[in-house]
């Protein structure tokens, strides 16, 4: 005998019988964090409005951030932002991690990374979760800063800099157990290497210029390992 599920549902509703709920055991959440400030800095661009693109760099360990807006997302603006990041982050940077946006694959940008001894680590395509910390921080900006900010204010970057200071020095973070990014930077200062240490360990021969096309980059890497020239 076949019984229609809809019929069973109507009978249960008639006698006010609550439906059985299937409970799924939540998987234990493991938070992944680097141990040393500057060990890995995630970088991304978020479109705020027409002609307003926020560049964001966030340290994987301390959550210390550098923010700035530009009218476009371009390789030139990426280079300018990188200089800001190096200048404003209170520790040397060992790696920069980005998505596959074309603004991060300009030759000048990668050459400056090499000059500083910073390793370039673009993530795989369609893997935004690998850049999860910077993606999540954009939500915080949209909710806590841009909801009350005047996007037409010519001094928007000045207001954004004030928000950056508050975020780094005064805003406590649940992911940091209630501490601020600067609290963590200070606590980890004894473990944090100097720029001289980073530059000494950097091997430019093992850091090739990266290609935006992930498939092409993998093919080049494969040919280099086999010692064969790649076809044009």
Largest β-sheet summary? 5 strands, mixed
Strand content: 5-15%
CATH fold topology of the domain at 41-202: Nucleotidyltransferase, domain 5
Structural class: alpha/beta
* CATH class designation of the domain at 41-202: Alpha Beta
Give the neighbour order of strands across the main sheet.
3-2-1-4-5
Counting DSSP H or I runs of 4 or more residues, the number of helices is 8
Output the keywords:
232 residues; alpha/beta; Nucleotidyltransferase, domain 5
Describe the 3D structure:
The protein is an alpha/beta fold and 232 residues long. The protein has a domain at 41-202: Ribonuclease H-like superfamily/Ribonuclease H (Nucleotidyltransferase, domain 5). 38% of the residues lie in helices and 12% in strands. The chain has 8 helices and 5 strands; from the N terminus they run αβββαβαβααααα. A 5-stranded mixed sheet has the order 3-2-1-4-5, with helices on both faces. It starts with a helix and ends in a 6-residue tail after the last helix.
Short description:
This protein has helices at residues 5-14, 75-88, 107-116, 132-144, 156-169, 181-187, 195-201, 214-226, and strands at 41-49, 52-59, 65-70, 95-97, 119-120. It is an alpha/beta fold and 232 residues long. Strands 3-2-1-4-5 form a five-stranded mixed β-sheet, with helices on both faces.
